[in-house]
């Protein structure tokens, strides 16, 4: 088995229009100008690493982030995958949770509570473990996944073997970097969590507010 270094980033800042009504839903918009700068800087930070692939979710904010990062990673294949999409990772029982978390969970439909955990379990099977084969010479396989806050929270929780409800409250910065190391020698280790050293202070957005 070959060690996998899984690089995870939440998409860069989204360009959000003014809310158009309580039932408008979340629009599938691309990046703001700040978001574009965040993505470019993350790409420059990753430029010296050798990646096997970049994967991104289908929504425009993730696709555009991946596209800008990939400009710094020529030769690296880029794949769109639903596994990196924005899904509720777990149908968490609100009983006993702090009221803010319980309230947060009420927004998800029955379908989202079934489909999200199923896709997320597939994502764990695909990304969260060492790989069967890799480059010669013992070099780890690096993959970058450009995704959304929920999947990063779930993979961090999974790496720590923390109770399932603890995905709540793990929030990611736009274009923040989390790196998880999976080897056959032991449990996953968190190499970096929500690292924004590549962003100047003015580009460090506050953490995703949804579950705080
Ligand atoms: O909607 C949100 O709060 C998160 C959930 O994953 O998505 P995003 O990272 O796209 O903001």
Helices and strands in order:
Elements: E1 4-10, H1 33-46, E2 53-56, H2 60-70, E3 78-80, H3 99-105, H4 110-127, E4 141-147, H5 149-160, E5 177-182, E6 189-195
Helix pairs in contact: 1-2
The structure holds 2-phosphoglyceric acid.
GO molecular function: phosphoglycerate mutase activity
Keywords: Hydrolase, Isomerase
Protein name: Phosphoglycerate mutase
Describe the structure.
It is a single chain. This protein has 212 residues and is an alpha/beta fold. The chain has one domain (37-203): Rossmann fold (3-Layer(aba) Sandwich). Helices cover 29% and strands 16% of the residues. The protein is built from 5 helices and 6 strands, in the order E-H-E-H-E-H-H-E-H-E-E. The chain has helices at residues 33-46, 60-70, 99-105, 110-127, 149-160, and strands at residues 4-10, 53-56, 78-80, 141-147, 177-182, 189-195. A 6-stranded mixed beta sheet has the order 3-2-4-1-5-6, with helices on both faces. The model has no long low-confidence stretch (mean pLDDT 93). Keywords: Hydrolase, Isomerase. It holds the Pfam family His_Phos_1. Its EC number is 5.4.2.12.
CATH homolog superfamily = Phosphoglycerate mutase-like
Largest sheet: 6 strands, mixed
Mean of the pLDDT scores?
A: 93
What is the domain tally? 1
> Structural class of the helices, strands and pairings?
alpha/beta
Helix content: 25-40%
End-to-end gap: 38 Å
H-E order: EHEHEHHEHEE
CATH third-tier fold name: Rossmann fold
Low-pLDDT runs? none
What characteristic shape results from the CA principal axes?
globular
Compute the gyration radius: what is it?
17 Å
